[in-house]
Design goal:
314 residues; alpha+beta; ten-stranded mixed β-sheet; three-stranded antiparallel β-sheet; 7 helices
Amino acid sequence: MDFFKIKELSSTKDVLVFKDQVGVSQHSIDSDSFTELNPRALGVAYFVDGGLQQIFSSVNQGFYLLRLSYVKFVDNTRAEQKTYDAILKTNGVAPFEYQFLEPFRFFDDIPKGFFDYSKDAGAETLVNQIRRIAELRLSIDIARNMKGGELLVVDGSVYPAGYDATEIKALIKLCKERQVGLLGFSKNSLLKSQSGSLINEDILNFSKSLNLKRWVCSNIFFEDTLKIFTSYAYLHPLSRFAFRVDHLANPILPLERLSTNSCDGTFPGYPYGLIMVDKLARVKNEEKNYLYSKHFLSRNLIGVQNPHEILDSM
């Protein structure tokens, strides 16, 4: 979920100007907004992501595999990696509830009724919120053991979406206390102008006249309550994308370090550590089918189906 919605954006050769949704705050970008990045050693960096795959669903219930993963890099050597799996059950009708089939260390203390739903929200909203909170709790667990100057790169934005505010605040507080460089790195940024153009594409097009190999366009937005900045980064000369990065402090040094990890030939400009955790967290169809057979059919975890579902499965 993106925190900002842009109302209008206009561009000239030398200045890019856009306003927030209510038109109160106007921001402008010119060549001075860009800083060239010079790659340097990555040092120690942790990358965190989560995946979610529906294994089975019926009218009355749904089962999902939640998988969390992290990878630790020391410079560009993968030093450590780990995944955590949990099977999650939800009921199929409102009010939506959940339960883990086995104890899950990152999600054992949230009371029933914690989640708020719009009129059209359903079980998919519930499980995706659970996945996000679990990712943040894994990040908090990692940050507790990190040292000052190390990087913690979380997939997606670190702006709170309401339901995850407690975890976001705790993670930010911990990273500040331990002097850990926290970055929220988004694959997609849906911030756009009223005309429909994406902000990151406008910034990328604007940068082409500057002839910078790698750059950061700093502090495009600022969230005052938690002191979170949003910038856009271009981390490889062959990249086709400028990525949204949320951060707490000056992003130049962390992004210069991250640029050395963003040289994968298939996706230049995107951190290889995030590519790795995405692969680790992803649940393929073959694994989905295996889990369905092993854990559900053999253990009879699935409730009674209606006649149509029984026939469909034959």
